[in-house]
User: Which sequence fits this backbone?
């Protein structure tokens, strides 16, 4: 049994997240956590809301709330929606917690003691009309490198170049659109990433649990040359800046930059979990307290990779303290909305709460896992969504469950029948089961979720193929034992299919396993020979027929959704 720590990119507090956010971090983290628990490992899955920064202040103002009240409310909303999507976090914390404030201040002071924090005077954009300094992401303009007209002050989304706001051509406030800007001096703290460049590169070089996609992003930043990054902001909402445990002189109206404190939130949320559950957070995060045997796995979209492969490691390694760093970093591309970006700020696409109004969570979980943005961008369209879930869930899985259990109820009194001997069809299916189970487990262990889903679908399809070959309904009148053999094998396969589907479609899997009467302690990841697995249920076991697992999505539903949410644009 291994100890596995799992974190996913923290969802930002400014409203319910869209399906792209779900597909790019939170859902694959959950699928992986569920598989590892089923496989008998000790798993701790941690997430939290990312609550600091200018967007939180602006969202609160737009809602007519003070920022603390707004964040309190939005945290509960996001937690509830995540639970409705069956995201099985062990704990869902907050970066506005006292634990995160304490750890953020600790790291900053430790880094400064190690000579990695410098106090500098910077030039920063000030919006006269907004009466505020503008954080880098709230200054937009034309990229001086590629000419992209909507580059942000920290990075150009078109060419990927890191920027400073003052480098932008014809800058304007993203808050108000005002071009009435000026550059003012302001005092800030900088993390001296330049001093850590060689160490970070060596750490990335040594990483062997990352897909090449994640490494390439890290190397791009390193090859361009690291820059010292400002870790404070002229804001009131955030972690106060301290020195030796006291408010830092001259920084009373400043807080730590959200991108400095947010990743520390993984640690602080674990500490929150420990304080509420009686667990030991240090045994998961400090290698001198037991974390040397932990495998730490991170999940995130590609826009978060650079900060997690450069800036956060610089914080951990630069502290010179025995903190656990990531072992495997799984990065995802974009889920696009008809080829364009999902957008929280622009309300573009389907959001998690809206998705649940349309269909149960398993529909979305399956689609976003089986056809998600793994390896390359994936385009969401209503037509593809409809065709995929109708085929995979309704026709392949649902059909198998329905045809076997209904027939067994009408012909064998709703119990797993006895009688009959295995033959060539059962031998073929046993071989298929062994092949598919091995492949599914291997893909999950490698965090290849689309491949794992494809093999899961192939196992379901093998069940339908077996029923076509065995034809128990055709043999019932002439050879009841042969029919019993086919039905018994079919029911066992349904149980097996549901067990291996638990990571992706947990609600439907539970419905099937409850209906068949599989005990909770027999729902772990299946091991053993295919023949044994296909004869695991006791003869005479009573079962029931569940309601339709997955109703087909009809054309008129799709037409309604296109009208509501849009389609090809």
Assistant:
């Amino acid at each position: 049994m291994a100890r596995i720590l799992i974190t996913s990119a923290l969802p930002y507090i400014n409203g319910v997240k869209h399906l792209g956010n779900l597909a790019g971090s939170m859902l694959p983290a959950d699928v992986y956590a569920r598989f590892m628990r089923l496989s008998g490992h000790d798993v701790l899955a941690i997430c939290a809301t990312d609550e600091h920064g200018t967007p939180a202040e602006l969202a609160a103002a737009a809602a007519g709330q003070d920022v603390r009240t707004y964040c309190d409310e939005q945290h509960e909303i996001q937690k509830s929606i995540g639970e409705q999507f069956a995201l099985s976090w062990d704990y869902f914390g907050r970066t506005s917690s006292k634990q995160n404030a304490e750890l953020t201040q600790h790291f900053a002071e430790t880094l400064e003691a190690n000579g990695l924090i410098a106090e500098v005077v910077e030039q920063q954009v000030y919006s006269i009309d907004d009466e505020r300094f503008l954080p880098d992401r709230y200054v937009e303009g034309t990229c001086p490198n590629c000419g992209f007209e909507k580059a942000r002050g920290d990075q150009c989304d078109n060419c990927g170049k890191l920027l400073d706001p003052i480098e932008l051509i014809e800058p304007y406030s993203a808050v108000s659109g005002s071009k009435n800007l000026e550059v003012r001096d302001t005092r800030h703290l900088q993390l001296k990433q330049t001093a850590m460049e060689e160490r970070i590169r060596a750490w990335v070089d040594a990483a062997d649990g990352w897909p090449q996609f994640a490494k390439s992003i890290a190397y791009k930043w390193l090859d361009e040359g690291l820059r010292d990054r400002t870790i404070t902001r002229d804001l009131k909402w955030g972690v106060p800046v301290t020195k030796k445990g006291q408010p830092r002189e001259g920084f009373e109206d400043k807080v730590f930059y959200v991108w400095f404190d947010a990743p520390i939130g993984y640690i602080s949320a674990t500490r929150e979990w420990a304080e509420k559950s009686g667990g030991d957070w240090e045994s998961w995060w400090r290698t001198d307290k037991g974390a040397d045997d932990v495998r730490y796995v991170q999940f995130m979209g590609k826009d978060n990779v650079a900060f997690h492969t450069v800036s956060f490691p610089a914080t951990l390694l630069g502290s010179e303290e025995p903190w656990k760093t990531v072992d495997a970093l799984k990065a995802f591309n974009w889920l696009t909305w008809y080829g364009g970006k999902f957008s929280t700020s622009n309300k573009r696409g389907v959001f998690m709460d809206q998705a649940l109004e349309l269909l149960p969570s398993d529909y979305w979980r399956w689609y976003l896992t089986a056809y998600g943005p793994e390896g390359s961008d994936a385009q969401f369209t209503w037509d593809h969504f409809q065709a995929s879930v109708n085929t995979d869930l309704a026709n392949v899985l649902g059909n198998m469950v329905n045809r076997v259990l209904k027939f067994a109820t009408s012909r064998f009194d709703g119990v797993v029948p006895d009688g009959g001997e295995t033959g060539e069809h059962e031998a073929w299916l046993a071989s298929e089961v062994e092949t598919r189970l091995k492949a599914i487990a291997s893909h999950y262990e490698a965090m290849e979720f689309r491949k794992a889903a494809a093999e899961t679908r192939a196992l379901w399809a093998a069940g339908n193929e077996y029923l076509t070959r065995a034809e128990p309904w055709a043999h019932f009148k002439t050879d009841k034992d042969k029919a019993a053999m086919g039905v018994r094998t079919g029911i066992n396969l349904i149980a097996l299919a549901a067990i291996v589907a638990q990571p992706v479609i947990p609600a439907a899997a539970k419905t099937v396993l409850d209906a068949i009467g599989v005990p909770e302690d027999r729902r772990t990841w299946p091991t053993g020979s295919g023949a044994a697995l296909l004869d695991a249920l006791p003869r005479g076991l009573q079962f029931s027929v569940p309601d339709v697992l997955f109703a087909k999505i009809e054309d008129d539903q799709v037409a309604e959704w296109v009208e509501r949410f849009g389609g090809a644009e």
Notes: The first helix runs from residue 19 to 38. The domain at 3-116+192-379 is CATH 3.40.50.620 (Rossmann fold). The radius of gyration is 27 Å. The chain has 19 helices and 19 strands.
